[in-house]
Amino acid sequence: MTFLAPWALALGALGALGMVLLHLVARQRPAAYFLPTTRFVPDKRTLVSRAATRPRDLLLLAIRVLLVLAAAAAFARPVLTPSRGAIARVVLVDRSRAVLDASDAAARVRAISGDGAPLAVIGFDSMPVHVAPDSLGQMPLSGARGSLSAALIAARRAAVALADKADSVQLVLVSPVMAGELDGATARVRAEWPGAIRIERVAARVDSSSAWHLERALPISNALGPAVVRQLPTGLVSRLVRGALSAADSAFARDGGTVVRWDSTAAKRPAAEGLSANGEVIVASLERIAVPDGRVLARWADGTAATSETVVGKGCLRTVGVAIPAAGDLALHPPFQRITRSLLAPCGVTASDHAADSSAIQMLSGPSTAAASGAVLRATETRPSPLAPWLLGVALLLALAELAVRARAVPVPT
Predict the structure, then answer these.
(1) In terms of domains, do 222 and 177 share one?
(2) Whole-model pTM above 0.70?
(3) Which structural domain range is residue 396 located in?
(4) Is residue 99 within 8 Å of 177, Cβ to Cβ?
(5) What is the pLDDT of residues 194-226, one digit of tens each?
(6) What single-letter DSSP state applies at residue 270?
């Protein structure tokens, strides 16, 4: 048994000692004598205090000492300490759209849990859910984006329960670890975990950029070229148009193709603008171009549509109202390249997320390789004390017993 607030026990011991000292100071009335002059004695009780070597009213003293100790033990919040093993594990399993094969992730979990250590498995996409390890293979992948921040918060809570069963808790992340699964709060939430994170990376879903290509390849010198320079002539086809659309472009869209109208180098007076598309955000020197009404695929920082898409026959027509300067290194920035691929992709195709870089992996893993200490996890979390209500009940019964003993005491004759 351990006490979450041991200082309360020390205060209770001091209170019990003070109770014994008070009982050593005996207060009693002097002997009564019948004298004729008693009529001149004031009508009030006379008490004499003296120190005794042995406390009086032993039953009453015992009840009072037990009452103080029971109340102090209740406020000390005792917790039964079970027998602990060496290690326990919390396993976070990615179930988001970034995972290629769910059975691969389930096989990793079975291999990790082969030693029989206490285990908590949490499947996550945008929300974490506790799952049984045996039913993990039957859980389908979701179409939502994963959130590592939400998963780490759930792991922190699950680790507190496991900390009572083990001296240390190991956190294992089974995920392809895509960049879109990290957000602004991930680093702060990761810092709350007092140990290393073991990362088991599984295969990610193939980037849809390899499942389509432009009808005409762009040179690397083009402002949009670095984003699509590695494309292979496979899958669906998109047609990039500069300037006005022709009858052939309209026929291409009606037959099921995708026509993207983008005057990408028309910016003359670029200004600092914020652009958001497919979960990516950039701030760069850009110029706005008005787009027609349609389904919005990209927006400026103030919410204005930057790209619109309309259905034409079996295909679609997309207008990108983002003009970028002909000179500069904007085309070399990975966020801009990912936005470019998403805006050039065929209708109905969403560019998949990209894998997190080495700095993000290092941040998640942590500076050390040691598992989280169970003592640290237990000390930083408020836990209920199941024995405290019973001890308070005992203290209440002792208080009632103390009143009963005092009421039955024989009064001293006057």
Answers:
(1) no
(2) no
(3) 2-80+386-408
(4) no
(5) 999 999 999 887 654 456 788 888 888 888 888
(6) -
